[in-house]
Amino acid sequence: MRLQRAVLIAAGSLLLAGAAHAAGTPTGSDMPWWAWPLGLFVVCFLMGIVAVPAGIGGGTLFVPIVGSFFPFHLDFVRGAGLLVALASALAAGPTLLRGGLGSLRLALPLAVLASASSIGGAMLGLAMPANVVQMLLGGVVLGIVALMLVSKKSEFPHVAQPDALSRALALNGIFIDGASGRTVHWQVHRTVPGLVVFLGIGVLAGMFGIGAGWANVPALNLLMGAPLKVSAGTSGLVLSLVDSSAAWVYINRGAVLPMIAVPSVLGMMLGARIGARLLDVLKGSVIRRMVIAVLFFAGLRALLKGTGVWP
C-alpha cells in the first residue's frame, strides 16, 4: 500500500505540474535558464517511476509532455526522447533480467527488426514539418489511450501449443510472481505475426521519438501470449536496442541538445531504477490508470498545439 500510495502521489504531482503550466505559469522569458533543466530532471524522475511498471518506456510520456509544456523545438524533444527511453530501459534492464521479468531471448529477434525500421522512421520524422509531426503525435498518443482503454490484457495468458519458430528459438521461460508467489512457466505463439508487427512499431518509434513500449506490451501479451509482467519487462529490453538505432539519426542531424538531454536522462534513469522494483510488487491496474490519465492530457495538448488552437 505504501508503494502504491507513493506512485499515486508522484503521478498526481506530474499531472498537477502540467495543469499549472497550462493554466498560466511564467513563460521561458520570465524564468532563469537553469529552471528548465531542473524542471526536466524532476519531471523525468517522476515519469521514470511510472514508465517501467507500465512497460511503456520513458519516451512515450516524455515527448508529448515535454513537447507540449516546455519551450523547446519538437525536433530536440524527439531526439532527447529516444535517449530518455534508452536510458530508462538500460537502467531497469539488470533488475528485470535478474528477476526473470525480462527475456533477452524473446527480445532479440523482435528488436533486430524494429531497430532496422526505426532508422527509416527517424529519417521520415525529421523530414516532416514540426506542426505536422505535433498533430500526428497527438493523434497517436490519443490512439494509445484508446488502445489501453479497450485492450483487456491477460495477467497469465494460456498458450496451449507454441508454434514451430517459437520452439526453434526457445522462446519460453520461468519466473516467480512477487505479488502472488506462484511460479509461472510461459511460452509464446504467433511468432511470425509478432515479428511483422514489430517492424511497424519500429517505424513509429523512430518517427516520433517516443520509444514504443506502449505497443510492445500489447503485442507481446495479447498477440504472442507472454505473461503481462514478462511483456512489460521484455518491452524494456526491446526499447534499449531499438531506441539506440534511431537515436543515432537524431544525433547525426544535430537534433540532440545537451541542456535538454542530460537532465532528462539523469532523472529518467534514477526514476526507472525505482520503477523496476515496483514492477514486481505493484498491481498493473494502478499504473495503468495513471498512465492513461497522463497520456490523455498530454496527447490532447499536443494535438491542439499542432493545430494552433492551443499555442
Write out key terms for the chains shown.
12 helices, globular, disordered N terminus, 311 residues, 3% strand, two-stranded antiparallel ribbon, mainly alpha
Structural commentary:
The protein is mainly alpha-helical and 311 residues long. The protein has one domain. It has helices at 2-24, 35-54, 58-69, 74-98, 104-127, 130-150, 164-169, 191-208, 213-223, 228-252, 258-281, 284-307; strands at 172-176, 183-187. Strands 1-2 form a two-stranded antiparallel ribbon. A hairpin with a 6-residue loop joins β1 (172-176) and β2 (183-187). α1 packs parallel to α12 (284-307), α2 crosses α4 (74-98) and α8 (191-208) runs antiparallel to α9. The longest helix has 25 residues, at 74-98.
Sheet with the most strands, sense and barrel status: 2 strands, antiparallel
Shape: globular
> What's the end-to-end separation, in Å?
40 Å
Strand content: under 5%
Following the backbone from N to C, one meets helices and strands in this order, namely HHHHHHHEEHHHHH
Number of strands: 2
Label the structural class.
Answer: mainly alpha
Our Rg estimate from Cα atoms comes to 18 Å
Strand order of the largest sheet: 1-2
Show unreliable segments: 1-29
Tally of distinct domains: 1
Mean of all residue-level pLDDT scores: 76
Number of helices: 12
Residues in helix, %: over 70%
